[in-house]
Amino acid sequence: KYGVRHVGRKKISVIGAGNVGATAAFLIAQKQLGDVVMVDIVDGVPQGKALDMAQAGPVEMFDAKLTGSIGYEETADSDVVIITSGSPRKPGMTREDLLNTNAQIVASVAENVVKHSPNTVIVMLTNPLDIMTYHAWKVSGFPAERVVGQAGILDSARFRTFISMELDVSVEDITAMVMGGHGDTMVPLPRYTTVGGIPITQLISTQRIDEISDRTRNGGGEIVELLKVSGYYAAGASLAQMAEAIVLDKKRLIPCSAHLTGQYGIDNLYIGVPIILGADGIEKIVEIDLSSEELDSLHRSAATYREGIGVIGY
Ligand code: APR
Asked: N or C, fewer C-beta in 10 Å, the chain?
């Protein structure tokens, strides 16, 4: 029937039709992963962007149905809900102010998401990522495997980009692992980063690897400095990859923010670790060998997030 979602087609909802949300929505439609619903609080924005994107369909040859809304009815029974709604840090705002503002937004969004899609997988993007993912998990009441945060894909994509620039080699041949929080405390792992299967430690000097790791850690900041707002193409692409892993049940082994229950010596915290992502969400948390130095970095990263969830009352 006209206006009714095609039977068998997946539904992906994106809450927050801002820069990252809209980029993710467009890539998801282009990849024909399913129908896409965008929700925002600014009336006209999600509807206008959905119509604009739909009109790219005949040019790009995709049939995804795109809908924009300021309510959640259209999101009902989504297979995946991506949450990007949030506020950027404004002048004079402390980190804690931002934490509390975004915690309120994420709580109200998560409640609506659960009400309309009780069986969905939630993919979080709002910053501070690992803290907001914990918060969304708590508010949703979902099993932890159905709430996952986007962190490591973007961070390792930045690492891969810089390695590609360094070696002048295809990004296709580069796989990278970046663990830890999505912030200054992230932990790039050169030992687990390869070009055509060859660890980069055999291809790039230690000094250059350190410099590239630092640039990766500061990857978000470097873009903000140039653009004056946060980057969104790579973050949007990373979200689309997560949606793809879930709706196609690809079981990708990728770094994401996942709820740990003792793995890596960390308990009851969301932080970036290698996971297997499929139709059930986080299907497995993969534990890899870390040196004591790498483990220390991960624990330092965890300590800042422990403090962060404390600020919002956990
Ligand atoms: N419900 C739905 N949408 C909301 C809500 C809400 N309660 N509150 C804010 N929004 C929307 C805004 O109207 C805006 O369109 O979220 C969108 C955020 O988009 P941008 O400001 O463009 O931010 P973006 O660069 O996309 O980043 C998204 O990621 O980096 C984090 O914390 C940052 O919150 C930001 C998020």
From this structure: N
